[in-house]
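#lab-general

N.A. 3:47 PM
ok so I finally got the sequence cleaned up, no stray characters, all 117 residues accounted for. can someone with queue access submit it? mine expired

B.Y. 3:52 PM
send it over

N.A. 3:53 PM
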Amino acid sequence: MLKDQETTKKDHIRTVAYSAGMIVLIIFSGILLIGDFITDKFETLRLIVWMLTVSGGLFLFVRWHARTFAYVCPSCGAKFEITPFVDFISPQIPPNGKCLKCPDCQTRAWMREVSKN
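B.Y. 4:20 PM
back already:
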C-alpha cells in the first residue's frame, strides 16, 4: 500500500537539482566529447559516445522519477505507480500533475503527484 504524502519542498528541490544535473551533463559532455567536431577524424565516435552519455543520464533520471513518485486519481482516489516508460512518454505539467489513465476506474485525467517516501 502506498502512503499518500504530498510532494514537499525537498522533493521539488531534488527534482530541480537532478534536472539541472542533466542539463550540465548534456552541455559539458557535448563540449568535451564533440569538441573539434569538424576537424576531428573521430567525429562519428565522439557523437555516438555523447548520445550514449545523454541517453544513459536521461534513463537514470526518468527511472529515479518513476521510483520516487506515485499518482492519485482525482475521480476514484486510487493511488498507483507507473513504469519508467510511461513516465517518459506521458505529458506532465507541474501544477496539474501528469496525464495518465487510472488503472482502477479507467479514467484519463491529470493525476496528482505524491511522494512514495
